């Protein structure tokens, strides 16, 4: 095995080395000049760019790689600084006015989603997310009832339904402690969901961050506290294995 390798290796490395010694000047007819290397490199680069252009359907010579500074709207926004809009101002950017970009907001951060008018433009599947901060709907999935930044009461969605029989056996202290733990976990899950969608828009190739909504707190304070929407209530799981375990399921 090793002798075979050595045999194969030996002739190939020993044969050409005396002839193509690159340390000799390039006026040697058989040597490889710098120019030759450049020619080969240039050919390779052009071939690669061409291949990318062909494979991406004449869209990109870099296989779809677009650093942020090659995107004009992103550069303009960077130069102008973050855009600050009130909820009323933001409502204009809902895809109805074709001269305006389409914006949506997650947890107070505004993203430009104009690149996807089929989904976000007038008549699009997710047009209801635009022109507003609908963070609550991003978590509950209730796209009719929950188009608001008001997150009060969403915790319930992630708090398991108690078995009344089992709960009777707990002391009030134990119940309180469990309630606090439930709330902590629920808030964590909401954070994770919101962060997921914020990250989705921030990391998306075609969308970009434009700024912040100002005055969301005032809007929330004016709203009535709402019930958790029905669809989200139905998603709630049952408590399993907390405290004293019951036989059922
Ligand atoms: C909490 C629940 C949900 C949220 C927050 C949500 C949110 C979204 C968002 C923001 C997009 C657009 C992605 C983009 O910009 O490219 C999207 C796309 C999509 N979602 Fe959902 N979605 C949810 C549940 C569902 C469900 C249950 C279905 C299936 C019935 C669904 C079907 C789709 C489809 C087909 C698309 C592709 C774009 C389109 O055709 O409109 N989504 N979703
Ligand atoms: C978009 O906003 C404008 C102005 O606030 C409003 O007249 C229009 O009905 C809204 N369009 C949709 C689809 O909500
Ligand atoms: C939402 O924004 C507030 C600050 O505006 C921040 O404290 C909070 O952690 C954010 N929530 C998530 C889920 O990122």
TrEMBL record:
Stretches for region Disordered: 1-27, 230-249
Chain ranges passing through the membrane: 37-55
Lipid metabolism is among the record's keywords: no
Composition bias, Low complexity: 13-26
SMART domains linked to this entry: Cyt-b5
Keyword Transmembrane assigned: yes
Origin: domain of life: Eukaryota
Protein name in the entry: Heme/steroid binding domain protein
Organism: Aspergillus ibericus CBS 121593
InterPro entries: Cyt_B5-like_heme/steroid-bd (IPR001199), Cyt_B5-like_heme/steroid_sf (IPR036400), MAPR/NEUFC/NENF-like (IPR050577)
A Pfam family annotated for this UniProt entry: Cyt-b5
A Gene Ontology term for the protein's cellular component: endomembrane system
Segments forming domain Cytochrome b5 heme-binding: 85-163
UniProt entry keywords in alphabetical sequence: Membrane, Transmembrane, Transmembrane helix
Bias kind Basic and acidic residues: ranges: 237-249
Family, similarity comment: Belongs to the cytochrome b5 family. MAPR subfamily.
